[in-house]
Amino acid sequence: MGVPKPFPLYPKHSEIAVMKLSDYPELKAFLESGQSWRLQHWTWGLDFLRYVARNKSEHTFGRFRNETERFLLWLFLFMDKPMDTLRKADILLYADFFWKPPAEWIGLTTADHFVYQDGFYMPNPEWLPLRLKLPKNQSVDKAPDRRQYRPSQETLNSMFTGVIAFYKYLVNEEICYGNPAQVAKSDCRYFIEDVQVKEIRRLTDEQWQFVLTAAESMANQDSVYERSLFVIASLKVLFLRISELSERKEWVPAMNHFWQDEHTNWWLKIYGKGRKLRDVSVPEDFLPYLKRYRLYRGLSPLPFSTDYSPLVEKIRGQGGMTARHLIRLVQQVFDEAYESMRKQKGEESARKLRQASSHWLRHTGASMEIERGRALKDVSEDLGHASMATTDTIYVQSESRKRAESGKGRKVR
Length: 413
Description:
49% helix, 2 domains, single chain, mainly alpha
């Protein structure tokens, strides 16, 4: 008997609230083909995800949707046991499955769960529950071995977080009377107590200079890249996440979110994770990049409180940019910087620019500030961290860098 074929169970954030099973004929047939409790469990999952969609961000919804979906598929297709009868040992069996899933469940790209055809939502044949992340410079044409998939510690923790939250919701609704996932997590053999030196996902000072120079050179040669230069500078200097520059349903970043206090200090109001607003301090060294970008757009050098124009505008059409489009802008600059640094300094010096993502710029800016001697509390508040302990991990990484430098002089003789 072959491996059961996975089946998408839930749509995206914008469709979950109005989802009707009659619009998903193949999903309906799948749910009705198994045990009688299969449809009931799917409904529990739908109610849970609607709750998440109402109260959490779209990104958080996506994470919980994926974890709920994978867990229910395992129950339906492998465990064949109702969720409200599971014990700790059963959850640990799911951890075994999650640690080494069937190769047939592992994809190489992200795909939509459903496609709209002839008035109905049909399962996308390209969709798979898990994804093997490939290095940026590796082509999918090289047929990577899906059996090499292993979840990271962060992915494993995210799995338990999702299943625990699902159970917690059902307990609060008096559907389940215990949370075996919460108990099982502490006994999962795949968790590793990690005291090793973390890989620092940041650019070196030299790599950052190549990135900034590349962005400035691109903007000097073609004004369309003024936007890219502004985005690069904002992510690094203001410690922003890419989502915090993007237009979202509940928030549109605008130029008047830059504001000046009575002491002439500049700030930027940011809508961040957890639907929290924060004000990020804007250094004087950043203002020339803001002025340059605004002048390119035909605006005044600095924004006024009545300037509702998008913070990062589309070249074509109206409104702000999506996170996906912003990532493409950053990647173009990284590619240009990599080629320039490789030619001047060699592949070894430029190598990290092939791995870097937009989030590395946030880490780079924060690390440089900590190394400059700025108070950890101030950096933490600009980053929007709920706890200084989170910021402290950046400090520890910076200290590891110093430790490595001090250890390079050790001799064999």
